[in-house]
Amino acid sequence: MNRRTFLATMTAATLLSSRLGWTRSGERKLDKIGLELYTVRDLMKSDFEGTLAKVAEIGYREVEFAGLFDHTPREVRAMLDRHGLTAPASHVNYKLLDTEWPKTLEDAHVIGQSFIVCPFIDEKLRSEPDGWKRVGETFNRAGEASKKAGIQFGYHNHNFEFKPENGKLPYDILLAETDPDLVKMEMDLFWITKGGQDPLKYFDRYPGRFPLVHVKDMTKDGEMTEVGSGAIDFKSIFAQSDKAGIQHYFVEHDQPKSPLDSSKTSFEYLERLRF
């Protein structure tokens, strides 16, 4: 481990201490649990603030936005304050990393965000020659600008990053091509598992690189399910939070039958979880 990696890991571990608590038996637990609002996106469209209020009633204290649904950043910040929520992160479209990036960073400051995450890469771009390498270059530029603005840039994976291309995994290409100080990763624990990879191996190889995680469970049949209802070993994963550098834990379910009930079930499991 070089000096820069060591310092990054130690900084992440310090920040992590505010997200984890200790029980009397010496076990750890999550002090703050977040929700990726993509889970409740249909409810947000029809009742934005009412949905935020219901999320807060469940017990969530952090949220990650996936669109503001025509509300201004100042309006959103006021709603968060009214309901005792913070939004440390947001998902933004890859296209915004170009000309609209300065405004995107300004909006993030108003809302109070410390992370901006690109959640998806279009298939056309992915399939172009050296497409992933070019994506890495774009991420470095966006990360440099966001770093100067006091905001950390990151990327959220699905499972297509774990399908080999010319003998290499696209996820590995991104990690190698991007500056670890400028580009962090929001690891989606469902999709990396669905892609046949082990999160712990990535924590070992790239310590401190994963300040955000999406907490999603998977059945033995490979289907998405509520956290605690599937086969993913969250205890083992969270036990390595220090090494990974995890600061924020966001529950998500892409297609829940009942978004709020699903969010509540996952929250209650994570609130009880000890590791």
Main attributes?
275 residues; alpha/beta; TIM Barrel; eight-stranded parallel β-barrel; two-stranded antiparallel ribbon; 13 helices
Task: Give the % helix.
Answer: 40-55%
Overall number of structural domains: 1
Major sheet: arrangement of strands: 3-4-5-6-7-8-9-12
Q: Which architecture does the CATH hierarchy give at level 2?
A: Alpha-Beta Barrel
What is the count of DSSP helices, taking H or I runs of 4+ residues?
13
Main beta sheet strand tally, sense and closure:
8 strands, parallel, barrel
Looking at CATH, the homologous superfamily is: Divalent-metal-dependent TIM barrel enzymes
Let me know the number of strands.
Answer: 12
Average pLDDT figure = 94
Structural class: alpha/beta
CATH class category label: Alpha Beta
Give a verbal description of the structure.
The structure is a single chain. This protein is an alpha/beta fold and 275 residues long. The protein contains 13 helices and twelve strands. Helix 4 packs parallel to helix 5 and helix 7 packs across helix 8. The longest helix has 18 residues. The radius of gyration is 18 Å and the shape is globular.
